[in-house]
Amino acid sequence: MTNNDSAPKAHPPSAEKPKIMIIEDDRFITQVYSTKLKEVGFDLAMVADGRDAIPAIINEKPDLVILDLMLPGKSGFDILRERMNSEELKKIPVIVITALAQSKEREMALSLGAQDYIIKSDHSIQEIMQKILKHCERCGIVAKNIG
Predict the structure, then answer these.
(1) How far is Cα 134 from Cα 131, in angstroms, rounded to an integer?
(2) Mean per-residue pLDDT for 65-77?
(3) How buried is 42 (Cβ within 10 angstroms: 0-12 exposed, 13-18 middle, 19+ buried)?
(4) Count of other CB atoms within 10 angstroms of residue 11
(5) Cβ–Cβ < 8 Å for 21, 60
(6) 66 pairs with which residues across the strands?
(7) What mean pLDDT do residues 95-108 have?
(8) How far apart are CA 47 and CA 29, in angstroms?
(9) How far is Cα 6 from Cα 75, in angstroms, rounded to an integer?
(10) What's the pLDDT score for residue 4?
(11) Is pLDDT at 9 greater than 50 in this prediction?
């Protein structure tokens, strides 16, 4: 659970609500994250299939991406690799939240530009939400109802 100090800076704040994209195939987890993030004032976009992730990021232009690594269609690692090939997409911070607990997977995700690697089973939903909000704050992504 180490942060990558070279976190890209997100889009400057606008009059619109900041948008977080959740790329996760587990509907329950997506529902929990989306409910909590909406409560604090974020707009959300959700993607359940890895093949749809990059086109959705390009179209939606989120301020932050929450990415699972185990997805149907295309892995989160492949999404991170594709993101690294685009100057525009590299600017969007990505937090990996996954069940994969091996250090080699963590190292690979961080080397592919993820700002953080959070193992689902190591943290409560509340702790994960606190980490997401800290990343938002550090990147200048502030929702209306936060602090």
Answers:
(1) 5
(2) 97
(3) buried
(4) 17
(5) yes
(6) 22, 95
(7) 96
(8) 12
(9) 23
(10) 46
(11) no
